[in-house]
């Protein structure tokens, strides 16, 4: 099994995941745009278990379909590093940029296409959802 470590900008908060990604995607919803300060969030899912080191500040947001997402970010540098869905302990979603790996695989899914900036170009063959997938 291969391990990967993602961290905040200053290195204080880290998450170590094992195995291959369960999938990667981008989200164009307005909440992700505001949360990341970018035009979309790029996320990769990994199966539990995972190991977190450092201190995280948390923010819980309720999604459009009622799920509660607990976002963890560094209280020192403010970087978003990972999040989990409350009641779902089988996986963790890690911010792709936190891996600082330009060779990270392209996303397979794009959600909230209805909020995608018109100039954003995504890989061919990506699965697109107008809002949250069913």
Automatic annotation (TrEMBL):
Keywords carried by this UniProt record: Lyase, Metal-binding, Zinc
Pfam families, per the entry: GFA (PF04828)
Ranges where the CENP-V/GFA domain occurs: 1-113
Family of the protein in this entry: Belongs to the Gfa family.
Annotated InterPro entries: CENP-V/GFA (IPR006913), Mss4-like_sf (IPR011057)
Name of this chain's protein: GFA family protein
SUPFAM superfamilies: Mss4-like
Highest taxon listed in the record's lineage: Bacteria
Gene3D superfamilies given in the database record: glutathione-dependent formaldehyde- activating enzyme (gfa)
């Amino acid at each position: 099994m291969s391990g990967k470590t993602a961290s905040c900008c200053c290195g204080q908060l880290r998450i170590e995941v094992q195995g291959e990604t369960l999938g990667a995607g981008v989200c164009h919803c307005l909440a992700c745009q505001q949360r990341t300060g970018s035009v979309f969030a790029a996320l990769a899912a990994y199966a539990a278990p995972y190991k977190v080191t450092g201190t995280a500040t948390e923010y819980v947001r309720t999604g459009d379909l009622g799920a509660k997402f607990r976002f963890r970010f560094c209280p020192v540098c403010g970087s978003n590093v990972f999040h989990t869905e409350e009641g779902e302990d089988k996986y963790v979603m890690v911010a792709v940029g936190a891996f600082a790996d330009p060779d990270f695989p392209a996303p397979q899914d794009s959600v909230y296409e209805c909020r995608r900036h018109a100039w954003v170009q995504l890989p061919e063959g990506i699965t697109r959802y107008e809002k949250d997938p069913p």
